[in-house]
C-alpha cells in the first residue's frame, strides 16, 4: 500500500487503515472485521445485488446512513459501524427476502438463523438455491469473456439461463460460474464434458494454461477445465478458480486487444465464436 493512498477510517470505535477508493468491505476484512456478503467477489466490481453487506457510514459531521460495503469506497473522514441495531434489523429484513427467493440454500438459511430472520414457507420455490445475485452472469461475461449466461424473465420469474434455455456453443465449460456462485446453485457435470468432446472433436482451446489448441490426449482432465490443477499450481495469486489467475486475465487482455484491432472477430451473444465449443454447464434443478 502506498502511503499516499492510505486512508484511516474509524470502524466500531477503533481506527483501521484502508486504501483510497478500495471497496469498504475489503478494508474491513483486512482489519479482521466480519461483514456478511453473498454477491461480492474480489475479482469483480461490486454490484450491491444482495444488500447483505449493509453497514452504517457517516462522512465528517454528516448524518449516518446505510450503505452496502461491497460497492462503497474507502474515503477520508469516514466513520463506519458494522453491528448496530439498525444494521442488524436491515440485514434481517434482507435475509427474509433472500430466504423467500432461495429456500433451498443452506448458506442463506444459516445466515437467516444467525440474524433471527423469519423463515417463511415458499413451496413453489422448494429447493431453489439461486439468490439472483448475477455473479455467474458477470464472471462469464467479464472474466471468462464467453457471455454464455444471461437473465430470463422478469420480476419473481427472473432467473439465470443460457440463451434459449438450451446447450450453448458459447459455454466453454470452465466452471467459473460454479466457482463464484455463493449458494452452490450451479453444478458442473461430467456428462457435459463428454458431450463437449463428442461435439467439438479432438481439439479445444486451453484458456487457462494458455497452451493454445490442445488435443484431448494432452489434457489430463478430459477438458473439464474446472478441475484443472495445472493452472491451479501455476497461479500463486490464484484465488479459488483458474479464471481469476493473472495468466488468464493477461491472456484475455491480449484477446481483447486483438479483437479491438479487428472488430469483425468480436462475437455477439448467440453467434458462434471461433473454434468449436460446446456446452458443459448445467444448473442444478430444484
Ligand atoms: S462454464 Fe460456461 S457458463 Fe460457466 S462461466 Fe464458464 S463459459 Fe460461462
Ligand atoms: S446461480 Fe449463483 S451466482 Fe448465479 S445468480 Fe444464482 S446465486 Fe448468483
Ligand atoms: S455483498 Fe454487498 S450487496 Fe451483496
Question: What does this protein structure show overall?
Answer:
- The chain has 286 residues and is α+β, with helices and mostly antiparallel strands.
- The protein has three domains: 3-83, Roll (Ubiquitin-like (UB roll)); 87-125, no CATH class; 135-283, no CATH class.
- It has eight helices and eleven strands.
- The chain has helices at residues 24-30, 85-101, 106-114, 135-144, 176-180, 190-200, 229-234, 246-261, and strands at 6-11, 14-19, 54-59, 65-68, 78-81, 150-152, 159-161, 186-187, 203-206, 212-215, 282-283.
- It has a five-stranded mixed β-sheet, with helices on both faces. It has a two-stranded antiparallel sheet with strand order 6-7.
- Helix 2 (85-101) runs antiparallel to helix 3.
- It is globular.
- Bound molecules: iron/sulfur cluster (2 copies) and FE2/S2 (inorganic) cluster.
- Residues 37-40, 48-53, 68, 70 line the site of FE2/S2 (inorganic) cluster.
